[in-house]
Amino acid sequence: MKTTCITTLFWPLSMLLLSDESQSSKIEVKCNFTENNYSLIPTDINKNVTILDLSYNQITLNIIDTRVLQTYFLLTELYLTENNVTMLYNNGFANLSNLEILNICRNSIHVIEQGAFTGLNKLKQLYLCQNKIFQLNPDVFVPLKNLILLNLQGNFIGYFDVPQLFHLELIILYGNPWNCSCSLLNLQNWLNTSNVTLENENITTCTYPDILKFYSIKTVPYNAECYSKFPPPINEDLYNHLQSISNSTFNSSLNNLKNSEHKLGKSWAFLVGVVITVLMTSFLIFAAIKCPVWYNFLLSYNHHRLEEHEAETYEDGFTGNSSSLSQVPDTNSEETIVIFEKLHSFVVDDDGFIEDKYIDTHELHEEN
């Protein structure tokens, strides 16, 4: 069991330059808590610790551990080798902005959430070797802008897409069951075109398919069909160029969208008016076809309202004609009924004309 904390004080150039300004200093605090059978990260560690070694314990990096870990924000190196870590949670190291080395080798990690390394802007070396990682999303490395070393040795990774790690100098991938199908072509192109060095290249070989066994993943031959399916990876210069094009295209599209919305606002009322007019016209045509009674009524109605003097003349004439009619001795009841019907009804002849009901009774009597 080892439990030690050592404080080292460096005074750079303290004896070479004499001035009124205070001399710069750097304090390095190392704490070693290996082989203590800890199941949780201790809370009583010196808060100024910069190098913390918790290897060979039973730590799981659960929620309690991550909360305690955030209090050691001055850490530059953290070693958690051979513990019981099975999962790296989002924002598990978010407050460790000074961390430069993180070693979590020989655990049982099988899940790494996408935001697990958020906040590690200064991280330079990441060791994830000898875990149980089957699949790894390259986006988990996006926050690691200064990473120069990545160790993934001894996992169960068969496929790995190209990570956007433009400053990476060394990558360790041997000890994984690599499936050298067409899907691994992008990784091969990236290894051959970037400045990264593949450590132990000769033993970083394919496991599948059998025909490509023992080929290095960096030199395995691919057929022309694979090259047509998977274009070469994006390097840093091309990535920045595409980003600038994407931004300019987005701004142009946004302006076009605003202009189209402005034009649409002006033509909207006109479009609604046209639609309503078409609908009303269609309805009227349908009504005229399906309702001929109304159509015939409109065609046959040719009368107009009588003026006041015309109404008086009509009343006088009708009264006189009625008295004259009553004085005719030879008219029988049948003739009277016929005359009444002619007086009080419209008769539609075959020629389409409507017979006027205001017939002079004297002329009618003479005709009879």
From TrEMBL:
Gene Ontology CC: plasma membrane
Pfam families: LRR19-TM, LRR_8
Recorded superkingdom: Eukaryota
Membrane-topology annotation of the record: Single-pass type I membrane protein
GO BP: host-mediated modulation of intestinal microbiota composition; positive regulation of canonical NF-kappaB signal transduction; positive regulation of non-canonical NF-kappaB signal transduction; regulation of cytokine production; regulation of inflammatory response; toll-like receptor signaling pathway
UniProt keyword list: Glycoprotein, Leucine-rich repeat, Membrane, Repeat, Signal, Transmembrane, Transmembrane helix
Annotated signal sequence range: 1-24
Subcellular location: Membrane
Entries under InterPro entries matching the protein: Cys-rich_flank_reg_C, Leu-rich_rpt, Leu-rich_rpt_typical-subtyp, LRR_dom_sf
Record-annotated LRRCT domain positions: 176-227
Primary site of residence: membrane
Transmembrane segments: 268-289
GO molecular function, one term: signaling receptor activity
Protein purpose: Pathogen-recognition receptor which mediates the activation of TRAF2- and TRAF6 NF-kappa-B signaling pathways and induces the expression of pro-inflammatory cytokines. In kidney, prevents infection by uropathogenic bacteria by inducing the production of cytokines, chemokines and antimicrobial substances. In gut, involved in host-microbiota interactions, plays a critical role in promoting the recruitment of immune cells and intestinal inflammation.
Quaternary assembly: Interacts with TRAF2 and TRAF6.
Name listed for the protein in its UniProt record: Leucine-rich repeat-containing protein 19
Species per Swiss-Prot/TrEMBL record: Mustela putorius furo (European domestic ferret)
Gene transcribed to yield this protein: LRRC19
